Amino acid sequence: MVNINDCILSIAQNGELNQTPKYSVTKAAKLLGLSAHTLRYYDSLNLFPFLQRDQNEKRLFSDADLQWAKLIECLRNANMSIKDVQHYVKLCLQGDETLDERLAIINQQEKTLMDTITLLNEQLALLRFKKQYYKTAHQLKKQ
Q1: CATH number for position 136
Q2: Strand, coil or helix: what is 60?
Q3: Domain extent for 50
Q4: What CA–CA distance (Å, rounded) separates 109 from 121?
Q5: What's the pTM value of the predicted model, to 2 decimals?
């Protein structure tokens, strides 16, 4: 199993993230713009392999955990299924022997997201066309 330092290298652009647990679920959720329920759900699926708990078994998130959560949310927002995110996390924990498979997953998610962006841009162009049409029609009606 890979340790947290290896995982941090894969999520921190400068390779440094504080691992000190300091955020409650509520605070972490607020910082991330997610619901506490979502974070608890992700934790119940073992998507936070290094998450620590206090003496009362309450979850405590570190800065490293927050970045890990951002990665998970990024994958989810790119339409990756929970099952596939779980698989991706397991691959991360296996270490460098899974680099090729993880790269393939990230490449596929990038393509999926680019396809979604293209579709959204086409839809936005149509809405803008309709908006301009209605503005022009409204102006002509006033005359």
Answers
A1: 1.10.1660.10
A2: strand
A3: 4-141
A4: 18
A5: 0.76
pLDDT in tens, 26-73: 999 999 999 999 999 999 999 998 899 999 999 999 988 888 898 898
Domain count along the chain: 1
Q: Which two tokens stand for residue 15?
A: 């390779």
DSSP characters for 82-122? HHHHHHHHHHHHH-GGGHHHHHHHHHHHHHHHHHHHHHHHH
* Beta-bridge partner residues of 23: 61
Q: Which tens digit of pLDDT belongs to each residue from 86-140?
A: 999 999 888 889 999 999 999 999 999 899 999 999 999 999 999 999 999 998 8
For residue 25, report the phi and psi dihedrals to the nearest 5 degrees: -60, -45
